Amino acid sequence: MSSATWTPSSCSTSSQVLPLYLRPDFQPSANPHARIIRTFLLARLWLLVVCALTSLSIGVAVSKPAGFPDHPHRGFETVTYMLEVRCVCSTQCFAPLLFCSTHASCSLKRPHPCGSGYWLLQGAFTHQDFAGHKGTIKTGDVQWMTAGRGIVHSEMPAGDGVHKGLQLWINLSSKDKMIEPRYQELESKDISRGESEDGGVEARVIAGEALGAASPVYTRTPTMYVDFTMRPGSRLHQPVPEGWNAFVYVVDGEGVFGRETATAHYCLVLGPGDGVSVWNRSTRPLRFVLVAGQPLGEPVVQHGPFVMNSRAQIQKAMEDYYYGKNGFERAGQWSSSA
């Protein structure tokens, strides 16, 4: 397992437009049914963002029997968001959940209302943990899990077909690292939505506020997490609180962020400013997520599934998990039904 250490002095305390690109790192899984893009495994990004936000992984092609069987965590939160694939047909119907006609041979296809493509039933992921939490999130749903002092859980496909999603790791402050585990689930229909006055920009607000909409999700670390979709030609200026660290991840399309252009699966770390300005000058919809967080100003040490403040605490977490104590008492007796 990899490990890394950072101190507050190595973290940027600014918040908005810095032209730093990170290319996606495609990592094939040992299982041929899973392929993962891990965008945030580069130390350079950690140094800028890890004060509040630790990493982002994108499962771009996960199908049975792949998945993430029973594994532990301590000291941070995971936020799993199942992606929608939006229609990018010639009529720009802007509907969600479209797979283009190149997937017409897929056994899961359904005719799309615009007539130029197909719906793809995206399936779902099921979470189970030893604290008794269990839930299945489908396309557009969010699962917010606080590992706290310790959790063992599984994340496994609950249906056939391809699964796409984002998973964000959010660091907890030292005072919250040993709290009891917590689980929140938000269905797609309950996610707050905002829209620009001209209708050119839509926002799904997972955490924080955007375009007049506010998320109902409780966050221990002050966090903004917004999924934006912009029609061709539209513009957006999204404020970000002063002093927060922030980044943009492009899900689909191409956009101009400040003076920088980025395409799908690229990430831009944002530097000083009062927010981020975006222009979709392409002929296709642009989709990206904006994530920002208030820096904690504490040392961060990460090793595998544990995120703590010192190497000694990491060693203690490993020992607690191995010996089944201090939050991991149920680890030896529990296994998921996945």
TrEMBL record:
* Record key words, sorted: Membrane, Transmembrane, Transmembrane helix
Alphabetized InterPro entries for the sequence: Pirin, Pirin_C_dom, Pirin_N_dom, RmlC-like_jellyroll, RmlC_Cupin_sf
The residues covered by the Pirin C-terminal domain are 225-327
| One Pfam family named in its UniProt record | Pirin_C
Domain of life (superkingdom) = Eukaryota
Q: Identify the SUPFAM superfamilies for this entry.
A: RmlC-like cupins
Domain Pirin N-terminal: start-end pairs: 119-170
Q: Write out the transmembrane intervals.
A: 41-62
What's the family?
Belongs to the pirin family.
Q: Protein name, please?
A: Pirin-like protein
Q: Which organism is it from?
A: Zea mays (Maize)
Q: What high-level taxonomic lineage is stated for the organism?
A: Eukaryota, Viridiplantae, Streptophyta, Embryophyta, Tracheophyta
